[in-house]
Write a structure and sequence with these properties.
With 141 residues, this protein is α/β, with parallel strands linked by helices. Helix content is 29%, strand content 18%. Helix 1 crosses helix 4. The longest helix is centred in the first third of the chain and has 13 residues.
Length: 141
């Protein structure tokens, strides 16, 4: 048996719609990361980009279990001395609810150039509306 690699012309990308309302953050992020990488496809190859586009709606309604709303800390560095900024998940949900999902998914992708290319196919929207109706995304429960 010979191993065959998929060509760019053979890769078919679907559009998938996920409603984040009431879903646990970690479990949903795993599903999104697998869809973005194309893990469920028979042509999956770890070093090739074979994944789908993923549209997430209702990002502000994602569920954080336990006391993560107050205890989970997001850190970023401004680049200046003493510039470490820390905010908790409640503040992040209030200001930038889409970043909670984006950071969770980004942490579940491999840390290489391919994952930086893959994360561009993730579209996260606050609320029920999204501008990707023309692509007719397939809703996944």
């Amino acid at each position: 048996m010979k191993t065959t690699l998929p060509r760019q012309s053979e890769i078919e990308r679907k559009w998938v719609l996920i409603d984040a309302d009431g879903q646990p953050l970690g479990r949903m992020a795993v599903r999104i990361a697998n869809l973005l990488r194309g893990r469920g496809k028979p042509i999956f190859t770890p070093h090739l980009d074979t994944g789908d586009f993923v549209v997430v709606i209702n990002a502000e309604k994602v569920k954080l279990t336990g006391r993560k709303e107050e205890q989970k800390i997001y850190q970023r560095f401004t680049g200046y001395r003493g510039g470490l900024r820390e905010v908790n998940a409640a503040f992040m949900r209030e200001r930038h609810p889409e970043r909670i999902i984006e950071l969770a998914v980004k942490g579940m992708l491999p840390g290489n150039k391919l994952s930086r290319q893959i994360i561009k196919r993730l579209k996260i929207h606050v609320g029920n509306e999204h501008p990707h109706e023309a692509q007719a995304p397939e809703a996944i429960g």
